[in-house]
Amino acid sequence: MKYQCNNCGAQSLMWEGKCSSCNEWGTYEELAETESSTKSSKSSASHNNSLQTKPAEKLVISEFYNSKKKKGAKAKVDSHSRISTGFSEFDRVLGGGIVEGEVILLSGEPGIGKSTILLQLSDLLSKGKKVLYVSGEESSAQFANRYDRLVGITESSKLEVTTEIDTDAIASMIENEGYDMVVIDSIQSLQSPRSRGYPGSISQVRISGQTLMRAAKDNNTAILIVGQINKEGSIAGPKVLEHLVDCVLYMEGEKFNAFRILRSMKNRFGPTNEIGVFEMTGGGMVEVTNPSEVFLQSDGNASGSVVSATLQGSRVVFIEVQALCVERDGGAGPMRRVANGIKKSRLEMLCAVLSKRGGVFLGDKDVFVNVVGGLNIADPAVDLAVVAAIKSSVKDNPVSNKKVFVGEIGLTGEIRKTVGRDLVEKEGKRLGYEVVTGVRYVGKV
């Protein structure tokens, strides 16, 4: 007799109250040997029969090259047939549109707008393509009401919707109906009879993902999969799918902020770390074609406000970095270093460098730094802007909003050149900014 965890699929010869692999409680279920062996023999027989009736396909890469050349197309392996989504910002993040047969995983916090943007996208594509929306979390009537509220249902609406949650049945629909694109909302709602786990468990998600991936590749159907976020803030379940899918997109933004940022974390057919900016409105998502207007809102008359620029994929985005330094009353309690939009560890390092090398003592001050617009920046090019904003706040001396501070700061106080600085300088000069990158040491900022 064997026991199997219905969350992670781990097996044990004896029952355990807590799974030693995933640390979940009460997930072990009895797995009969006869059932396991029968399934194994059936699977083996089926596999052998499939080998006899359908030989494995193979491709000589030079033949692919020659076939492209004969058709007059560019003989490049990366020349894919793409489908425009109707959203230029979405297309930018994907690298020009959805590749036929591509599997895309979209994740984000609950209520961030994943279902909203995919419904709008599905409506746009259904005007010229055959699109299926798998609504595993809503009934057909609920989906229709949301559809009517966001885009409006008309006699010409061609989008198809199903509430089917059986993965094999969905794969069969993809094979028989010839869809151009399928939206799965969400992967946690699907279940496969080949797994004993509950919907949303790792074993169910893994099998469902593999089934959908195979269906996408075999039928040249693009599939967009919604993955939810767990309490730890990471992709729940679909984390095991990241190596299977072709593209991983993450939607971020504050709950009480109207702006949403779509970021590419993995992309086999396009650039990574590309961003698209949207605004959440009562009528759904609206594209923001010039993000710098969103992230630059200062009039330049307040101290502690500095303009910087960061390279997000192929796009130069100008942002506003704000800093506030407050004297600590009586020096009681630990110093506070609060960072929104940059890592706290980065802020603590910059404060230490500024105190040691820049001549601005911060040991008796609380420091607060914020990137306007809710954008999270990992680019070290904003280091110089953070330091300049802190010094401006301490000295109560405003900095011109026509100056753009770009540069990485080292522990010795030197300012280093960052990746893409030439593009930033070129774009800054085109828009009439004075790009500050030539300051050699922090003390001269």
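The above is record 1. Record 2 follows with the same two-line structure.
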Amino acid sequence: MTVKVGVIGVGALGRHHARLYQQCPNAQLVGVYDAAPETLARVSEELGVAPFADMHELLSQCDAVSLATPTDLHFAMAQEILNAQKHLLVEKPITVLPEEAEVLIQMAKSHNRVLQVGHVERFNPVIVAFEGKVENPRFIESHRMASYPPPRPGALPRGTEVGVVLDLMIHDIDIVLHLVKSEVASVDSVGIPVLSKSEDIANARIKFENGCVANLTASRVSHEPMRKIRIFEPNAYLSLDYSKKAAEVYRKVPQGIHRESVPIDDHNALLHELQHFVGCVAAVQAGGSDPASKVPGEHGLRALKLATEIIRLFPDPLDLP
């Protein structure tokens, strides 16, 4: 079954959604929409796809859409999409506020529509390679570093409509919650603004009820990019590099420590995410319900709630030494 798809918001990330939908064998890219006419024209010409100056006109011709606008626009636009009875893949974070995400989840359920959240690291080859194999994490450490996004005429630099926790750290929050599978017991955090009005560097220490501790650091004012996570279990230590798509495991054996590289089935994580979304939509169109999306709206809400708590606990800058 062919699913007719569209992309709303074709900036830095949405452009790739549109490009990769053209590679999904069971998807037909109907068109793209963007509020910026020059961006819409450029991407339309580049990909050879129809431009839509009106979002609702695009919706009328689609079964499903990707929403890749700035985060502060997610809630209002997602409501319109779901009210139009369309399946929705919304980029992370699902919304700015947990209460908004709860509304979208209920709307999707009432309309029997797929609501998937774009936590793309779930589809990263290094995470896929260890799916179901991380048994008892006791300590997790992640670092996600990026340079500050370039200026944009008439708009904030990409992603800076929110702080670095919602912009970058939320990827690792979702992964940690996915791996640990325990309720959060306590959180300590700090966040510092550097170039924007919200935090640009943040650290969170999360303790879970099962005793696991996760230490997450995110920065968008770093010179050297980094996307790594280390997972410590009682008898093993896993080192995963998202960017290099590389992984190593250090295991305790009678002779000492055994190091092994883990073979990674390399693939484009975003393409796999889109294919998964299209597959879920096709299943619903065939007369069923959402066949357990890997990252449903509930998972996006779960990550957003913890991210919101991390931000809430930031000390007042006036109290810092």
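The chain has two domains: 3-121+268-294, 128-264+306-319.
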